[in-house]
Amino acid sequence: MRQEATINRNSITVNFTVKYCNNSESLLDSDGFKRVLTAFIEKIEKKETPVYIYIKDCCGKNSNLVQEITKLFKLLIVLEADELAKLDEKYCKLLEDRNTLIEFIENLYTFWRRYERYAIVRNSKKGEGLQNVNFIEAINNFKNLILSTYRQIEETIMGYKHRVYRQLSAGINAGIILNDMNRNCPAEYSVLERIPFIETVILQPPFITYPKRNTRTGIFQEVFENPLKEVCINEENWFCYPAKVGESLAFVYFNRSFMSQGVALCNLFELAREEEYKNRKPDIVYMYGVKDYDREMKTVFYDDKENDMLVGYANYGEDIDYFGYMKKMILTLHNIRMIKKGGLPIHGAMVHVIMKNGKNYNIVIMGDSGAGKSESLEAFRNLSEKYVKDMKVIFDDMGTLILNPKNGAPLGIGTEIGAFVRLDDLDTGYAYKEIDRSIFMNPDKKNSRIIIPIASYSDIMKGYPIDFFFYANNYDKVEDNELEFFSTPSEAIEVFKAGRRMAKGTTSEVGIVDSYFANPFGPVQKQEETNILIERFFREMFNKGVKVGEIKTQLGIKGMEKDGPLKAAQKLFELIKD
Asked: pTM here?
């Protein structure tokens, strides 16, 4: 990206490497300001707002409003309003109705703040901008510059100082430092060679985004020809997030039109260090937002056996503008890789509980989207503070069972360091307690989501023996038997394989639905291989004394969305406490 600034859909990206503004004059002269002002004037012109008509009449019908407003703002930085009125008749006219002029400035300021705002620094480039200095300090200074410029212009017009100042997040929402690290991709992936890698991410919370979609639909289909074979892209429009997904190294390439989806990965997957991916071939490659000639949404994957890589592909379109398409494709590719290596992917949540009496328990709750697995564990956490010393989340959505090479006992390992959960299903106020670390997605809509870091990479990869393994049943209404245990592997396998749940609106499904092994992200696509693994792991769990059963969360029953997981958590707590 060689331009000072670019606007894509609902975001603006400012390139601090090309130009960094450190005073009001350079800000008003910048290409970014020109682009924002132009977009704003086009918007109010189209609506023919009273503010636009007033400004146009004062400046002249044939005037270039972008140039005129920019010049006006520069003069308001150095002159008093009365002095400016004497310079030119048009300024005198503009200042006759100062309330309308202030309304224009306020609307422009709000228009800027409604963009998702990103800054980038590219370490390898030379320019008149910012590179190897304190990027965090630069972002903070840029915010202060925006605020001081806006206030100075407005206060000059008013003729007095504001009495209330709100230190809003008016600058950059997120900054990324890029590098041009050499990578070891096979020759057929040469189209990816010049795409810069994300080295560092700086978030300015609360980070709130408004993607165009709020649910995911369907499952990812396998194709048998590499979807990247004929891809042609402009590498200036792309970034790569090198992610550690469980034990897999994933190169996630995303189009800058979907910046929020790419940047949000930092709260979910560990960002790999340079030495972890330098000259290393990835296990997973995913391209998200490829412009092709297919008008229909395409979310497919390919098993590149020759290069021992799994490849994901999502084409450009508003239909994929939902974080589920980013996260779930990555997990699908990782899960298929684990199946090939003999691991069993688990769509569920796992916690390591350390009691104050010295005992430890590892609990897994498995279930598809909206089954109540995370909600029950969150309720358990709130209930157990009196008796529990510590509670570590090993995985919140997707994990893998592996066999301990020493004794054959199943172990649980994680894939993500964060959680992507529904705001509606969290305890009231929980999201606001964690607002300083969170990424919010469409908080004003149904199925609104929050992405929050919850564990360290070292913790999720340690490997924990399993004590309790539950299926989350969210559709059966119960009074007091929220926990039921199976006596044989075949009895358990029948329930777990069916993957039944009441759909909660997290996908396009409605009503009672079945999903093979409650996991449409790998096991569905590789059922034959997964069947063998299910038999092996459930047999080993029963042999090793793991308690396998059902936990009735009732999350899918109207009116039980809060009480259902709470009652299930109470039963689980009583079981462990006793």
From this structure: 0.91
Compute CA distances 380 → 361, 431, 570, 577, whole Å: 13, 17, 7, 12
Residue 294: burial class (beta carbons within 10 Å; 0-12, 13-18, 19+): exposed
pLDDT for 428 beyond 70: no
| Token digits of residue 374 | 């995370």
H helices present in 30-119, as ranges? 31-47, 50-59, 65-78, 81-87, 89-94, 98-113
Confirm if 277 and 295 have CB atoms less than 8 A apart.
no
pLDDT above 90: percentage of residues in the chain:
65
Mean pLDDT within 478-491: 92
Whole-angstrom Cα distance, residue 40 to residue 55?
Answer: 13
Question: In b/e form, how buried is each residue of 267-276, taking b as 16+ CB within 10 angstroms?
Answer: bbbbbbeeee
How many CA atoms within 13 Å lie on the side-chain side of 141? 14
Q: Which helix (H) or strand (E) holds 14?
A: strand 11-15
Q: Which residues pair with 201 in a beta bridge?
A: 176
Q: How many CA atoms lie within 13 Å of 407's alpha carbon, on the beta-carbon side?
A: 7
Q: Mapping DSSP to helix (H, G, I), strand (E, B) and coil, where does residue 48 land?
A: coil
- Cβ neighbour number for residue 255 with a 10 Å cutoff: 23
* Residue 529 CA, distance from chain mean position: 31
Tokens standing for 507?
């996908």
466: nearest Cα among 567, 348, 333, 332: 348
Residue written as tokens 């002002």? 37
Residue 510 CB: number of other CB atoms within 10 A?
A: 10
Q: Report residue 350 as tokens.
A: 């796992």
Q: How far apart are CA 557 and CA 512, in angstroms?
A: 11
Q: Tell me phi and psi for residue 250, to 5 degrees.
A: -115, 130
Spatial distance between the Cα atoms of 545 and 410, rounded to a whole number of angstroms: 11
Enumerate the H helices of 341-406 as residue ranges. 373-383
pLDDT tens per residue across span 252-308: 999 999 999 999 999 999 999 999 998 889 999 999 999 988 778 999 999 999 999
CA dihedral 396, 401, 402, 407 (to 10 degrees): 110
In angstroms, the CA 466 to CA 136 distance is 42
Amino acid code (one letter) for 519:
N
Indicate the DSSP class of residue 21.
-
| Cα dihedral 240→245→247→252 (10° resolution) | -20
User: What is the number of alpha carbons within 13 Å of residue 209 lying toward its C-beta?
Assistant: 31
